[in-house]
Amino acid sequence: MQPNIAGARPAVSQASTLFRRIGRALFWFVLLLYGIVTLYPFVWLVTSAFKTNEDFYNRPFGLPEVWKWENFTVAWESANLGNAFNNSMIVSIGSLALTLFISALASFVLARFAFRWKGIMLAFFVIGMLIPIHSTLVPLFILMKQMLLLNTYWALILPYTAFALPTAIFILTAYLTSIPRDIEEAAFMDGTGLWGLFFRIMLPMSLPALSTVTILSFLHAWNDFSFALVFINKTELKTLPLAIANFADGYQTDYGLTLAAMTLSIIPTVLLYLLFQEQMMKGMTAGAVKG
User: Fold this and answer.
1) String of b and e for 48-80 (b: at least 16 CB within 10 Å)?
2) Does this model's pTM top 0.70?
3) How much is the CA Rg of the chain, to the nearest whole Å?
4) Which of 6, 200, 225, 265 could form a disulfide with 241, with the two C-beta atoms 3.0–4.6 Å apart?
5) pLDDT digits 0-9 by tens, 82-101
Protein backbone atom coordinates (compact mmCIF):
# COMPACT_ATOMS: atom_id res chain seq x y z
CA MET A 1 0.00 0.00 0.00
CA GLN A 2 1.23 3.52 -0.77
CA PRO A 3 1.22 6.17 2.02
CA ASN A 4 -1.32 8.96 1.85
CA ILE A 5 1.08 11.64 0.60
CA ALA A 6 -1.73 14.01 -0.35
CA GLY A 7 -2.98 14.03 3.23
CA ALA A 8 0.50 14.49 4.73
CA ARG A 9 1.41 17.55 2.72
CA PRO A 10 -1.40 19.79 4.04
CA ALA A 11 -0.46 18.81 7.62
CA VAL A 12 3.18 19.74 7.04
CA SER A 13 2.11 22.99 5.37
CA GLN A 14 -0.15 23.89 8.29
CA ALA A 15 2.61 23.12 10.80
CA SER A 16 5.14 25.29 8.94
CA THR A 17 2.60 28.12 8.71
CA LEU A 18 1.94 27.84 12.44
CA PHE A 19 5.65 27.96 13.24
CA ARG A 20 6.09 31.02 11.01
CA ARG A 21 3.25 32.81 12.77
CA ILE A 22 4.64 31.95 16.19
CA GLY A 23 8.11 33.10 15.13
CA ARG A 24 6.71 36.35 13.72
CA ALA A 25 4.67 36.99 16.88
CA LEU A 26 7.72 36.27 19.06
CA PHE A 27 9.85 38.60 16.94
CA TRP A 28 7.40 41.49 17.29
CA PHE A 29 7.01 40.82 21.02
CA VAL A 30 10.78 41.01 21.54
CA LEU A 31 10.94 44.14 19.37
CA LEU A 32 8.12 45.75 21.36
CA LEU A 33 9.81 44.86 24.64
CA TYR A 34 13.09 46.32 23.40
CA GLY A 35 11.31 49.52 22.33
CA ILE A 36 9.70 49.90 25.76
CA VAL A 37 13.00 49.34 27.56
CA THR A 38 14.72 51.84 25.26
CA LEU A 39 12.06 54.56 25.55
CA TYR A 40 11.47 54.22 29.29
CA PRO A 41 14.47 56.39 30.36
CA PHE A 42 13.22 59.17 28.10
CA VAL A 43 9.68 58.92 29.49
CA TRP A 44 11.05 58.82 33.05
CA LEU A 45 13.14 61.95 32.37
CA VAL A 46 10.19 63.93 31.03
CA THR A 47 7.76 62.91 33.78
CA SER A 48 10.32 63.47 36.54
CA ALA A 49 10.95 66.99 35.25
CA PHE A 50 7.54 67.97 36.66
CA LYS A 51 8.30 66.78 40.20
CA THR A 52 9.46 68.52 43.34
CA ASN A 53 12.38 67.13 45.32
CA GLU A 54 10.01 65.56 47.86
CA ASP A 55 7.92 64.00 45.13
CA PHE A 56 11.07 62.72 43.43
CA TYR A 57 12.23 60.92 46.58
CA ASN A 58 8.79 59.58 47.53
CA ARG A 59 7.70 58.51 44.02
CA PRO A 60 10.90 58.05 41.97
CA PHE A 61 9.25 55.83 39.32
CA GLY A 62 5.68 57.09 39.54
CA LEU A 63 3.86 60.00 37.97
CA PRO A 64 4.09 63.38 39.71
CA GLU A 65 1.55 63.96 42.43
CA VAL A 66 1.41 67.62 41.43
CA TRP A 67 2.65 68.58 37.97
CA LYS A 68 5.09 71.48 38.46
CA TRP A 69 5.07 73.20 35.07
CA GLU A 70 7.01 76.13 36.52
CA ASN A 71 10.10 73.92 36.83
CA PHE A 72 10.91 74.70 33.21
CA THR A 73 10.66 78.47 33.53
CA VAL A 74 12.58 78.51 36.82
CA ALA A 75 15.31 76.29 35.36
CA TRP A 76 15.54 78.45 32.22
CA GLU A 77 15.91 81.69 34.17
CA SER A 78 18.00 80.56 37.15
CA ALA A 79 20.70 78.83 35.09
CA ASN A 80 20.61 81.33 32.20
CA LEU A 81 19.88 78.48 29.80
CA GLY A 82 19.20 80.85 26.93
CA ASN A 83 22.82 82.00 26.83
CA ALA A 84 24.02 78.43 27.36
CA PHE A 85 21.87 77.28 24.42
CA ASN A 86 23.46 79.93 22.20
CA ASN A 87 26.97 78.92 23.25
CA SER A 88 26.29 75.23 22.66
CA MET A 89 24.77 76.00 19.26
CA ILE A 90 27.78 78.08 18.20
CA VAL A 91 30.25 75.44 19.32
CA SER A 92 28.30 72.46 17.95
CA ILE A 93 27.43 73.99 14.58
CA GLY A 94 30.93 75.45 14.15
CA SER A 95 32.65 72.14 14.81
CA LEU A 96 30.08 70.31 12.68
CA ALA A 97 30.66 72.62 9.69
CA LEU A 98 34.43 72.15 9.90
CA THR A 99 34.05 68.40 10.34
CA LEU A 100 31.77 68.01 7.33
CA PHE A 101 33.91 70.17 5.04
CA ILE A 102 37.29 68.65 5.94
CA SER A 103 36.07 65.05 6.13
CA ALA A 104 34.20 65.31 2.83
CA LEU A 105 37.28 66.59 1.01
CA ALA A 106 39.61 64.05 2.62
CA SER A 107 37.21 61.18 1.97
CA PHE A 108 36.78 62.20 -1.65
CA VAL A 109 40.53 62.02 -2.20
CA LEU A 110 40.95 58.75 -0.28
CA ALA A 111 38.00 57.04 -1.96
CA ARG A 112 38.36 58.18 -5.59
CA PHE A 113 42.13 58.53 -6.11
CA ALA A 114 45.03 56.08 -5.98
CA PHE A 115 48.32 57.38 -4.60
CA ARG A 116 51.35 56.00 -2.84
CA TRP A 117 50.55 56.76 0.82
CA LYS A 118 46.85 56.02 0.64
CA GLY A 119 46.97 52.94 2.90
CA ILE A 120 49.07 54.76 5.50
CA MET A 121 46.66 57.69 5.52
CA LEU A 122 43.68 55.40 6.05
CA ALA A 123 45.50 53.62 8.87
CA PHE A 124 46.35 57.00 10.41
CA PHE A 125 42.68 57.97 10.62
CA VAL A 126 41.66 54.54 11.91
CA ILE A 127 44.25 54.85 14.69
CA GLY A 128 42.76 58.26 15.49
CA MET A 129 39.48 56.52 16.34
CA LEU A 130 41.28 54.48 19.02
CA ILE A 131 42.74 57.40 20.98
CA PRO A 132 40.90 57.97 24.31
CA ILE A 133 39.57 61.50 24.08
CA HIS A 134 39.89 62.43 27.75
CA SER A 135 43.51 61.31 27.93
CA THR A 136 44.38 64.40 25.87
CA LEU A 137 42.86 66.94 28.27
CA VAL A 138 46.13 67.99 29.92
CA PRO A 139 48.18 68.31 26.70
CA LEU A 140 45.34 70.17 25.02
CA PHE A 141 44.99 72.52 27.98
CA ILE A 142 48.69 73.38 27.78
CA LEU A 143 48.43 73.83 24.01
CA MET A 144 45.34 76.04 24.25
CA LYS A 145 47.00 78.15 26.94
CA GLN A 146 50.10 78.70 24.80
CA MET A 147 47.91 79.60 21.80
CA LEU A 148 45.81 81.99 23.93
CA LEU A 149 42.64 80.12 23.01
CA LEU A 150 41.34 79.37 26.51
CA ASN A 151 37.91 80.89 27.27
CA THR A 152 37.08 81.19 23.57
CA TYR A 153 34.78 79.25 21.29
CA TRP A 154 37.78 77.95 19.37
CA ALA A 155 39.00 76.12 22.49
CA LEU A 156 36.03 73.78 22.01
CA ILE A 157 35.45 73.92 18.25
CA LEU A 158 38.96 72.77 17.31
CA PRO A 159 39.17 69.73 19.64
CA TYR A 160 35.63 68.65 18.77
CA THR A 161 36.50 68.83 15.08
CA ALA A 162 39.77 66.93 15.54
CA PHE A 163 38.17 64.06 17.42
CA ALA A 164 35.18 63.85 15.08
CA LEU A 165 37.28 63.70 11.89
CA PRO A 166 38.54 60.06 12.13
CA THR A 167 35.02 58.61 12.45
CA ALA A 168 33.63 60.98 9.83
CA ILE A 169 36.39 60.15 7.32
CA PHE A 170 35.98 56.44 7.97
CA ILE A 171 32.22 56.57 7.28
CA LEU A 172 32.42 58.85 4.24
CA THR A 173 35.33 57.00 2.66
CA ALA A 174 33.49 53.70 2.91
CA TYR A 175 30.38 55.24 1.38
CA LEU A 176 32.14 57.07 -1.46
CA THR A 177 34.07 53.92 -2.36
CA SER A 178 30.78 52.14 -3.07
CA ILE A 179 29.77 54.69 -5.75
CA PRO A 180 30.32 53.23 -9.25
CA ARG A 181 33.21 54.58 -11.31
CA ASP A 182 30.93 54.91 -14.33
CA ILE A 183 29.31 57.99 -12.83
CA GLU A 184 32.68 59.65 -12.38
CA GLU A 185 33.77 58.82 -15.92
CA ALA A 186 30.51 60.10 -17.39
CA ALA A 187 30.93 63.37 -15.51
CA PHE A 188 34.45 63.85 -16.87
CA MET A 189 33.24 63.11 -20.40
CA ASP A 190 30.61 65.85 -20.00
CA GLY A 191 33.34 68.34 -19.12
CA THR A 192 32.91 68.38 -15.35
CA GLY A 193 36.07 69.18 -13.38
CA LEU A 194 37.16 67.81 -10.03
CA TRP A 195 35.39 70.51 -8.03
CA GLY A 196 32.25 70.06 -10.10
CA LEU A 197 32.42 66.31 -9.54
CA PHE A 198 32.81 66.86 -5.82
CA PHE A 199 30.10 69.49 -5.25
CA ARG A 200 27.53 68.50 -7.89
CA ILE A 201 27.73 64.71 -7.83
CA MET A 202 29.62 63.23 -4.90
CA LEU A 203 28.21 65.44 -2.14
CA PRO A 204 24.54 64.99 -3.14
CA MET A 205 25.02 61.24 -3.55
CA SER A 206 26.72 60.95 -0.15
CA LEU A 207 23.87 62.67 1.70
CA PRO A 208 23.01 59.52 3.75
CA ALA A 209 26.59 59.22 5.03
CA LEU A 210 26.76 62.97 5.66
CA SER A 211 23.56 62.73 7.70
CA THR A 212 25.09 59.97 9.83
CA VAL A 213 28.21 62.07 10.41
CA THR A 214 26.05 65.10 11.22
CA ILE A 215 24.13 63.32 13.97
CA LEU A 216 27.20 61.68 15.52
CA SER A 217 29.35 64.83 15.47
CA PHE A 218 26.59 67.14 16.69
CA LEU A 219 25.68 64.83 19.57
CA HIS A 220 29.29 64.63 20.75
CA ALA A 221 29.79 68.40 20.70
CA TRP A 222 26.36 69.11 22.21
CA ASN A 223 26.70 66.69 25.13
CA ASP A 224 30.37 67.11 26.02
CA PHE A 225 31.07 68.22 29.57
CA SER A 226 34.74 67.58 30.35
CA PHE A 227 36.31 69.72 27.60
CA ALA A 228 33.97 72.63 28.34
CA LEU A 229 34.70 72.33 32.07
CA VAL A 230 38.47 72.48 31.56
CA PHE A 231 38.73 75.02 28.74
CA ILE A 232 35.93 77.45 29.68
CA ASN A 233 35.84 79.51 32.87
CA LYS A 234 33.87 82.57 31.79
CA THR A 235 30.22 82.43 32.80
CA GLU A 236 29.04 84.03 29.56
CA LEU A 237 30.77 81.30 27.50
CA LYS A 238 29.54 78.25 29.43
CA THR A 239 27.77 75.61 27.37
CA LEU A 240 24.58 73.75 28.23
CA PRO A 241 26.13 70.83 30.20
CA LEU A 242 27.96 73.33 32.43
CA ALA A 243 24.78 75.33 33.00
CA ILE A 244 22.85 72.20 33.96
CA ALA A 245 25.59 71.25 36.43
CA ASN A 246 24.84 74.44 38.40
CA PHE A 247 21.74 72.80 39.87
CA ALA A 248 23.94 70.39 41.84
CA ASP A 249 26.49 71.36 44.48
CA GLY A 250 28.29 69.68 47.34
CA TYR A 251 25.27 69.87 49.64
CA GLN A 252 22.14 69.17 47.62
CA THR A 253 20.68 68.66 44.15
CA ASP A 254 17.44 70.11 42.90
CA TYR A 255 16.31 67.15 40.83
CA GLY A 256 13.17 68.78 39.49
CA LEU A 257 15.05 71.74 38.00
CA THR A 258 17.93 69.53 36.83
CA LEU A 259 15.65 67.14 34.96
CA ALA A 260 13.63 70.04 33.54
CA ALA A 261 16.83 71.59 32.16
CA MET A 262 17.91 68.21 30.77
CA THR A 263 14.52 67.79 29.08
CA LEU A 264 14.94 71.17 27.40
CA SER A 265 18.50 70.32 26.36
CA ILE A 266 17.52 67.15 24.47
CA ILE A 267 14.96 68.91 22.26
CA PRO A 268 17.52 69.96 19.57
CA THR A 269 19.03 66.46 19.42
CA VAL A 270 15.60 64.82 19.05
CA LEU A 271 14.65 67.27 16.29
CA LEU A 272 17.97 66.65 14.54
CA TYR A 273 17.45 62.90 14.59
CA LEU A 274 13.87 63.20 13.32
CA LEU A 275 15.12 65.43 10.51
CA PHE A 276 17.89 63.08 9.36
CA GLN A 277 16.65 59.67 10.48
CA GLU A 278 15.66 58.48 6.99
CA GLN A 279 18.97 59.50 5.45
CA MET A 280 20.85 58.05 8.42
CA MET A 281 19.19 54.66 7.95
CA LYS A 282 20.16 54.71 4.28
CA GLY A 283 23.73 55.52 5.19
CA MET A 284 23.94 52.70 7.74
CA THR A 285 22.50 50.10 5.34
CA ALA A 286 24.39 51.27 2.24
CA GLY A 287 26.36 48.43 0.71
CA ALA A 288 24.45 45.76 2.62
CA VAL A 289 22.78 44.56 -0.57
CA LYS A 290 24.74 44.09 -3.77
CA GLY A 291 23.39 43.60 -7.22
Assistant:
1) bbbbbeebbeeeeeeebeeebeebbeebbeebe
2) yes
3) 26
4) 225
5) 899 999 999 999 999 999 99
